[in-house]
């Protein structure tokens, strides 16, 4: 795999997210921007950690329901357990395609996104705003005649309205077989509008088209799909683990999983 050079002149959301998680794969420009966000929005660290937990729970739930194919767009810097590790622990034959647009993610993917011998993983360097490119490349290891779980976890708040995010999601879902799933998480300004307005401003000034959305706006991504109970919920209320760490916190993150009829 080849990659464009890493741009360290401006922050990148994948590296900022890694910093929120306590990772080490960021540059000073990312850390400075992240610390500015944290200074007036400390809940963002909790949102990042609960988001990872949601991804694990949702992927495991779908694997246990028999889904063996996953298309994960906006992968981010690998953080164990990665999606393929979660689903291949349920079914070693599961196949996972990862997609991200940050070259640092590609460098980690080469070393860390390794499949079981029975299954398969593939990494695509692409942007969610390139649905046709993603679909065609994913078809190299995914069978679109069979159900696929489309994972858009902590991604769509980096796709502002001018890029037609609802249309993008529909374009990604359209070629997937009946019985496929959408698993999605999205930050919201519902609980702290002023704090999130400042956060969005930092991202936008860094060249990232960020936009937070309300519960109704997040629910709109699931139009025409059959939501798994409990529907679109705050992350801590969606199939919580018995020993959930953040049960009493108001986490600014909506999540949901739904099936294509």
List keywords for this structure.
37% helix; 8-stranded mixed sheet; 261 residues; alpha/beta
Low-pLDDT stretches: none
Helix and strand pattern? HHHEHEHEHEHEHHEEE
How many beta-strand elements? Answer: 8
The gross shape turns out to be globular
Distance between the termini: 36 Å
* Major sheet summary line: 8 strands, mixed
Question: Share of helix among residues?
Answer: 25-40%
Protein described:
The chain has helices spanning 13-20, 28-40, 43-64, 83-90, 103-112, 131-138, 165-173, 193-205, 215-219, and strands at 69-73, 95-100, 120-125, 149-153, 181-187, 226-227, 233-234, 253-259. The longest helix is centred in the N-terminal third of the chain and has 22 residues, at 43-64. The chain is an alpha/beta fold and 261 residues long. 37% of the residues lie in helices and 15% in strands. This is SAM-dependent methyltransferase. Pfam families: Methyltransf_19. Keywords: Methyltransferase, Transferase.
Provide a concise account of the structure shown:
GO terms for molecular function: methyltransferase activity. This protein is α/β, with parallel strands linked by helices.
